Fold this protein.
Amino acid sequence: MTHAKNHGILVATDTIEATVHFFVALEKSCQVQLMADAAAAGTGTKPIKIPPKDAAITHAVVGSMMGGWFSGLPHFQLLETQEGVSFKFASNAVSKL
């Protein structure tokens, strides 16, 4: 995952499900960061940063490709319900993760 200067965010993973999940999560994280920066600036302070150890623990819990794939499935399930279509998921996607 990366930020392309003046072009927004870019996410690429092994599956479309994980890519969608991590894109949505990163977009929301960017929004939260902007709000935290604005709130801190309004009080004349700086945001409190998460210690690297805590960030590493969070990544270990939610940052795996399997976790991204699993968390991305509801996006497609919702689309299937809303659009009345059925997506074909790769049966071997999980084994690759």
Summary: Strands lie at 2-4, 8-10.
